[in-house]
Amino acid sequence: MHPIQAPYPATRLRRTRQNDGIRGLVRENYLSAADFIWPVFVRSGTDIVEEIPSMPGVMRRSVDRIVDAAIEARDLGIGALCLFPYTGLEERTEDCAGAWDPENHTNRAIRAIKAAVPEMVVMTDVALDTYNINGHDGFVEDGEIVNDRTVEALVKMSLEQARAGADIIGPSDMMDGRIGAIRNALETEGHQKVMLLSYAAKYASAFYGPFRDAVGASGALTGDKKTYQMDPANSDEALRLVARDLSEGADMVMVKPGLPYLDICRRVKDAFGAPTFAYQVSGEYSMIKAAAAAGMVDEERVMMESLMAFKRAGCDGILTYFAPAAARLLNAQ
Ligand code: PBG
């Protein structure tokens, strides 16, 4: 693979590791605040900022206080926020109508952010789970998660987000055909500039545990998501999903979870060369926080090392709850 490399001692690979200056010169990858998308949780009420018990340091904010997060992100050089609604059981229904309500938490938050910080890129989540009494990403009929009727609902949900001013729509539902259907509806209604970041390779993962707490879905979910999210044993299937979503009009694709699936990030980047993102999910975040709180690892160093791993694996950007903390460190360097 490296035929021109002379044998030892002509080649001593430690020569280029001997001090900060030379290490800086040969460094292959860089992280910056501009690489991050910061996921934030929106809830009902006013003037509320509450910590999520299973995700230390991560808050749920009422719409009026979401603007603070947007200002913080802008000041730190973070380019984008991704909104997730927190809904109590009383806000959930079987018909999931809250998902396409123009006044739902997400749509109100989009308008509030765009009014206060217009240059902030706003990404949304498209899936029915946060409005579904069943906690599933699609409609449940006779115990089955149905595809095509769900896609129609996802289209309505996406259109309301685009009308509210979202820049990036993020379908995280894993239904078949939704990218094409959403893209077609966006074009038809004149939202030519709205981007689609498809959660193309999303695995049925236990690493989402703390997030389901964060959005109020833990109590609601019946069964698991294995009939629509991917089997962690598969890798070729991820490439088929990415190919399919790009062909239907996705601008960018995502692999999720992150660190346990870096091999998928690399394969996707090498195969398609499309803008590729990874989601460092709630369980990955909370495991690092818990280990650091127990004195087992150095939180800052493990955080930065885990984020750099995504760049090395070929990702263009990272959705991470560490976004503000990591940006603060990077900006201080
Ligand atoms: C569901 C959704 C999930 C996450 C983002 N969107 C959870 C799930 O699929 O059950 C997980 C994010 C995280 O764990 O940080 N639409």
TrEMBL record:
GO molecular function: porphobilinogen synthase activity; zinc ion binding
A GO biological process held by the record: protoporphyrinogen IX biosynthetic process
Entry-linked Pfam families: ALAD
CDD domains membership: ALAD_PBGS_aspartate_rich (cd04823)
Reaction catalysis annotation: 2 5-aminolevulinate = porphobilinogen + 2 H2O + H(+)
Enzyme Commission designation: 4.2.1.24
Keywords for this protein: Heme biosynthesis, Lyase, Porphyrin biosynthesis
Pathway: Porphyrin-containing compound metabolism; protoporphyrin-IX biosynthesis; coproporphyrinogen-III from 5-aminolevulinate: step 1/4
InterPro entries: ALAD, ALAD_AS, Aldolase_TIM
Broad enzyme group: lyase
SUPFAM superfamilies: Aldolase (SSF51569)
Gene3D superfamilies named among the record's database cross-references: Aldolase class I
Origin: domain of life: Bacteria
Active site: K202, K256
CC annotations in GO: cytosol
NCBIfam families in the record: PRK09283.1
Assembly, per entry: Homooctamer.
Family assignment from sequence similarity: Belongs to the ALAD family.
Protein name in UniProt: Delta-aminolevulinic acid dehydratase
Lineage: Bacteria, Pseudomonadati, Pseudomonadota, Alphaproteobacteria, Rhodobacterales
